[in-house]
Amino acid sequence: MRVDVLTIFPGIFEGPLRESLLGKAIAEGRLDVRVHDIRDAATDRHRSTDDEPYGGGPGMVMKPEPVFAAVEALGPERGRTILLSPAGRRLDRDLAHELASEPSLVLICGRYEGVDERVAEGLPAEEISIGDYVLSGGELPALVLLEAVTRLVPGVIGSKESHERDSFEDGLLDHPHYTRPPEFRGMAVPEVLRSGDHAAIERWRRGAALAKTRRNRPDLLPPHP
Ligand code: SAM
Q: Fewest C-beta atoms under 10 Å: which of 39, 48, 118, 162?
């Protein structure tokens, strides 16, 4: 999968793209991420990418011209174009799967009060939010989206099963996990997990996942008749 990221803070991506899952996916050639500085597409002497809002009010707004120029420089074959925005469609399991089936994505990171509306309207760029709260920029949301999607790209996670068993995949939260030691500060690992009885372990995990979902996220379960 190829991902082009457009930002005015390219340095934010250096660590996350070097380490762990994303770093490994890139090193193995399963993921090709290119980070572009929107300032390089600005045409004025100061390389400005923001201006005052029409209608007044606090803060600055990202100008449309450098964003359009940066996206268009990627060529007509560029991928599905996304503007990270708190006003967008909320990223969830279904959307992550949908995006993982795309050959390429373009992620536009906003800053300040946001991005001139004509970017979403005219490029066009589809707005995606990572949740109902506001961050200072689209860089962390872009990394959240990138990691959620990359986990689903074939071959990225060692065993396919490991993401198929993750929370939300079957409509439930994941079951609790335990490792050694068998007892820690008076808390024992459930006996069944050490029994070697795989059918019993599966039954326990299903029940524990259901109980956890009922406790933490009852909204995921069908309503009681
Ligand atoms: N004035 C905007 C609003 O109230 O909707 C908030 C702008 S925010 C300070 C600046 C940028 O951060 C946005 O343009 C967007 O790219 C990014 N951003 C902030 N929160 C986000 C979220 N929950 N999901 C996706 N992007 C977000």
A: 162
Segments of the chain with pLDDT less than 70: 159-161
Closest atom of ligand 1 relative to the 129 alpha carbon: 24
pTM over 0.90: yes
Q: Give me the active site residues, please.
A: 86, 113, 151, 166
Residue 124, preceding peptide bond in cis (omega within 30° of 0): yes
Q: Which of 74, 77, 63 is nearest to 122 (CA)?
A: 63
Pocket residues: Cβ below 6 A from ligand 1: 84-87, 109-111, 113-115, 129-131, 133-138, 141
Q: What angle do CA 66, 130, 76 make, to 5 degrees?
A: 40
CA dist 43 and 68 (Å) reads 12
In tens, the pLDDT along 144-169 reads 999 999 999 999 997 655 788 899 99
Q: Which CATH superfamily is domain 2-150 in?
A: SPOUT methyltransferase, trefoil knot domain (3.40.1280.10)
Helix, strand, coil % (nearest 5) of the chain?
Answer: 40, 20, 45
Q: Which atom, in ligand 1's list, is nearest to the CA of 62? A: 14
Task: Please state which architecture CATH assigns to domain 165-220.
Answer: Orthogonal Bundle (1.10)
Ligand 1 geometric centre to CA of 136 (Å):
6
Taking the C-alpha atoms of residue 63 and residue 65, their distance in angstroms, rounded to an integer, is 6
Domain spans, the chain: 2-150, 165-220
Amino acid 3: pLDDT: 98
